[in-house]
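pinned: reference chain
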Amino acid sequence: MDAIISAGGVVKEKGLLSGILAPGTRKAMLELAGKPMIQWELDAVANVDAIDDVIIIGLNPDDGLYCGQKQIHYIPDAGGLIDNFKAGASKVLEIHPDSQRTFWFSSDVPLIRPEMIEWLIGISDQTDHDVYYPIIEQRVMKNRYPESRRTYTRLKDMAVCGGDFGIFKPSVAAGAHPALPKISVARKSVAKQAALVGIWPLLILLTRQMTLLRASKFIRKRLDLDLAFVNCPYAETGMDVDKPFQYEIVQKELETL
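pinned: its structure tokens
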């Protein structure tokens, strides 16, 4: 299995991180406790035996990154979430044509650790879905990071937020599955996400009767995408660095390691 790290994000002139990084700088290179943010992730990947090669989207060899004995392949930013998924998956299949699963995560979750990556790989070893997408319960997130200010989706039996990593079949992404652009457009709107699978699921969600199993079934039926939601016990995988206060939380924790 290979790993893809999406690192194409750039700090905007009036962006939330512009006071920490110069506008135009790649967000992945934000220094945290003496290392670029993405390097903390690469350190974790380096210690996962199940990961072979690493594909980084949006950076280049001059950035001086390393990943133990694993080879890093650099590809340019394709310009958008779905295009980057497709480009990364295509590179995986170029390197390993028979690849069945690929690990993916964004470059702004530097608290991720080897055991967290291994946990999701272990789950994907037991079944055969197109996509494994971790979600984190509100109680787990707030117990670990009470000041994280994450946005939560309320389901029937829990409130959840999304993790910033997952596993998918590279053949699905490389072929630009028809569901992926729709999901990309709706990714920041709960209502739009539910509307993708019809008015009935939307009503179920709004009345807080939706469960993860039910959501998976709706997605499979309406979008022909076999997506498995996985309840993740690791709040660190949802502690991304998008705002200055999140930077401070993560910086403080990394300085203790």
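why pinned: The CA atoms of residues 186 and 192 lie 5 Å apart. The chain has a mean pLDDT of 86.
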